[in-house]
UniProtKB/TrEMBL annotation:
Short sequence motif named GXGXXG, residue ranges: 15-20
Organism for this UniProt entry: Actinomadura rubrisoli
Phylogenetic classification of the source organism: Bacteria, Bacillati, Actinomycetota, Actinomycetes, Streptosporangiales
UniProt keyword list: Hydrolase, Lipid degradation, Lipid metabolism
UniProt record, GO biological process: lipid catabolic process
Family matches, as CDD domains: Pat_ExoU_VipD_like
Single GO MF annotation: hydrolase activity
Active site: S47, D202
Alphabetized InterPro entries for the sequence: Acyl_Trfase/lysoPLipase, Lipid_Hydrolase, PNPLA_dom
Stated name of the protein: PNPLA domain-containing protein
Statement: the UniProt record of this protein carries the keyword Oxidoreductase: no
Domain PNPLA intervals: 11-215
Length: 328
């Protein structure tokens, strides 16, 4: 084991659809404050967190990432099949999603290829001081929900369950699966050896904020901390239940069901002081994950919210104090 390094951090990024630009704001501020993110440290993310995390792990400069997220036309990702409403309805019934998701995949793939990354094998960690087992020695972890088996899956760690070589699997495919908001985007089919295809959808169904994914359980002090960025305001201590949401119509019902599944597990984590202590809370009030028509002013507000969250967090962060309190 190497010495403790308080300037480096593993990073876990919450999912949140178009609100993901706040994640870039937080990363921008952390880098400006002197924190080193990316290899040999690791990044994990769900949905939008997987998109941002993949670009960061691939080595995209943070200013370029910020520009991409400011300028992208989210509406292009609503790639409906032909025949308008009828086509979308048919797609939902026969392919389990209103939108194909091909445009989203192409957009992700192009950015990663521009950084020289196509497969997880290109994101293997070369860290002689690490004691990670080979199957976990990757700089990126993408969280998806396997609705065929009813479990959360961390890719590339668990490709062996499907009889697949993780090094040969497409990063863009995994990220596209993690961002497959149920009902909105078609799920990704993963064909494994000796069994029927598994359906992968938005990792947020089971854990939108997988903050514990890199935690050690062997009582060994980590070399550096794991930070998380959450796309919501900090919960009040002992506060009331989350804000009540009206549920109207079948689409509203579907959204409420998905939101409940996504939030229930992670809300329990916010009762754990050691989790809250390493989490940045970027307020994204009033913005839905599926607000594909996000205007420039709202994008800038989200970006600045992320920067402010990281700045506020860094002012009080002390790794030595954290270890003394939570890992004595």
């Amino acid at each position: 084991m190497g010495t403790v390094d308080s300037s480096r951090a593993d990073l876990v990024l919450e999912g949140g659809g178009v609100k993901g630009i706040a994640l870039v704001g937080a990363i921008t501020e952390l880098e400006a404050l002197g924190f080193t993110l990316g290899r040999p440290a690791r990044i994990a993310g769900t949905s939008a967190g997987a998109i941002i995390g993949a670009m960061l792990a691939a080595g995209m400069p943070v200013p370029d990432m910020a520009r991409e997220m400011r300028e992208v036309d989210y509406g292009r990702f609503q790639d409906s099949p032909p025949f308008g409403v009828v086509g979308r309805g048919w797609s939902l019934v026969t392919r389990l999603g209103l939108y194909k998701g091909d445009e989203l995949h192409r957009w992700i793939s192009k950015r990663l290829k521009g950084c020289g990354v196509e497969t997880f094998g290109q994101l293997r960690l070369d860290d002689p001081d690490s004691d990670l087992p080979p199957e976990r020695a990757y700089s990126l972890v993408v969280v998806v929900s396997d609705i065929s088996s009813g479990r959360m899956v961390c890719l590339p760690w668990e490709y062996h369950r499907y009889g697949l070589d993780p090094d040969e699997q497409s990063v863009a495919d995994a990220v596209r699966a993690s961002a497959s908001i149920p009902v909105f985007f078609r799920p990704r089919r993963v064909r494994s050896q000796g069994r029927s295809a598994s359906l992968h959808v938005d990792g947020g169904m089971l854990s939108n904020y997988p903050i514990t994914v890199f935690d050690r359980h062997d009582h060994v002090t980590p070399r550096w901390p794991t930070f998380g960025v959450k796309l919501s305001a900090r919960p009040p201590d002992g506060g009331p239940f989350p804000q009540w949401r009206p549920v109207r119509g079948p689409v509203g019902f579907a959204r409420a069901v998905i939101a409940t599944m996504a939030e229930a597990h992670d809300r329990v984590l916010m009762d754990e002081p050691s989790i809250v202590a390493r989490t940045m809370f970027a307020a994204t009030d009033g913005v839905l994950a599926t607000d594909f028509g996000l205007d420039a002013e709202t994008r800038e507000r989200l970006y600045e919210s992320g920067r402010r969250a990281a700045r506020d967090f860094a002012e009080s962060w002390d790794f030595a104090a954290y270890l003394a309190r939570y890992r004595p």
